[in-house]
Amino acid sequence: MKSLLSLAVLSVFGLTSSWVHAADNPEITPTPGWHTWSPRDEIAPAFSQNAKGGSDGKGTLVIAADKREGLMGCWQNEFPVQGGKVYHFSSLYKASGFKDERQGVVARVMWRDANNKLVKHDEPSTAGYRTGELPQAEPEYPQRKGQHHGWTEMSDSYVAPSKATKAIVELYLQWEPNTRVEWSNIALTEVSEMPSRKVRLATIHFQPKAGKTPMEKAKDFEPLLAEAGKQKADLVVLPETLTYFQSGHTMAESAETVPGPVTDYFGTLAKQHNLYIAAGLVEREGHLIYNVCVLIGPDGKVVGKYRKCSLPRSEVEAGVTPGHEYPVFDTRFGKVGMMVCYDGFFPEVARQLTINGAEVIAWPVWGCNPLLAQARACENHVFVVSSTYSAPEAKWMPSAIFAQDGQIMARGTEWGSVVMAEVDLDHRLHWSSLGDFKAQIEAHRPAWVTAK
């Protein structure tokens, strides 16, 4: 295996001059194994290599586009792999001139057998195939993982399909004129195991009918949060405007500051049971009130809040002010975003949260079309946890955990219940003709279109 690994870890090095123009002479590929490719000669960018470039000074693979639009092409190489083993791809790149790097700078990994034929994954597909049928191993798309001294890391880990004997790595520049990208520190290395992040997501299906004051409403949830703690929940989602629900008061009269008495109370319970709480409340800030979801951490403190951006008529008429930000918060298990009720009727809120990095969306919701909940989870490949006041028999919005493919993993069927599902935030779904769709969303989604 040592010899295999030595072949699988490649770097750009050993050039006789600083620049080798592969576009001028396609046969020139001094770096072992690397060659260039473009769909058509007329849209091929310029390829070259810089022997002294890169974050370590050991060389780079370079692609540059002139003033013409639509140029695209890649550097390509083969890496030996052993089926069933786990491999980590990593590279660094530095780009200039791009308006949108997410579409213009792309890396991908393709699995092939010894005859250079397509292979299949070893687990059944989630969607698009007959039951039990194995999906074709579509290209993998490594993700951007941060900056390193001016260079952007693009990396990810994959299980090589059992029939695969090689991985073809491609490093692209696409479409934008007057752009340039340098690729450095390119490696495909065997690692011991796939990353895994198991998280226990919970929702509470409950109507807080007792009590009139915000604190009395909040205390109705104490035994349910204790039960969630017993079940080792990591995140528990409570319903919308819980301090206002059937209180007999207006939203303004039910509003408190954040942090405030109710968030302090929930903080005590979050710390006691070692979990995160996402609670739907009404916030007052000066003369304004907001419909909010507040995330409270296991240290008892407010992690952050989201102010509902999409307001229905009733809240507009009640004098509620809409929010205008889509924050995402780091937790001990991953990144959490929040939205509130009517936000789910529109795709923009969940999409912006996932663009900002959300892996789980907590969703206090009075009621909504459940198909929209499935769509928000499915179109973004994100876990959505809803907590609703809708009765199960109404066939309206359930209190549920929605998987990345939009399917309901668990739902509340009785009032006063805690519903739990354990998920793996690193688990990949492979769809017919798409493969790991989530990995492609960043590069393939269109830019925002604003109506004129």
Task: Report what the structure shows.
This protein is α+β, with helices and mostly antiparallel strands. It folds into 2 domains: 2-192, Jelly Rolls (Sandwich); 198-424, Carbon-nitrogen hydrolase (Nitrilase/N-carbamoyl-D-aminoacid amidohydrolase), CATH 3.60.110. Helix content is 17%, strand content 33%. The chain is built from 10 helices and 22 strands. The chain has a 6-stranded antiparallel sheet with strand order 2-3-10-5-8-7, with no helix packed on it. A 6-stranded mixed sheet has the order 15-14-13-12-11-22. α4 (222-230) runs parallel beside α6 (261-273) and α8 (347-355) runs parallel beside α9. The longest helix is centred in the middle third of the chain and has 13 residues, at 261-273. The radius of gyration is 25 Å and the shape is elongated.
Annotate the secondary structure layout:
Blueprint: H1 2-8, E1 35-37, E2 46-50, E3 60-64, E4 72-80, E5 86-96, H2 101-104, E6 105-112, E7 143-148, E8 151-159, E9 166-174, E10 180-191, E11 198-205, H3 214-219, H4 222-230, E12 235-237, H5 251-254, H6 261-273, E13 276-285, E14 288-296, E15 302-307, H7 313-317, E16 328-330, E17 335-338, H8 347-355, E18 360-365, H9 370-380, E19 383-388, E20 400-402, E21 408-411, E22 417-424, H10 437-444
Helix pairs in contact: 4-6, 8-9
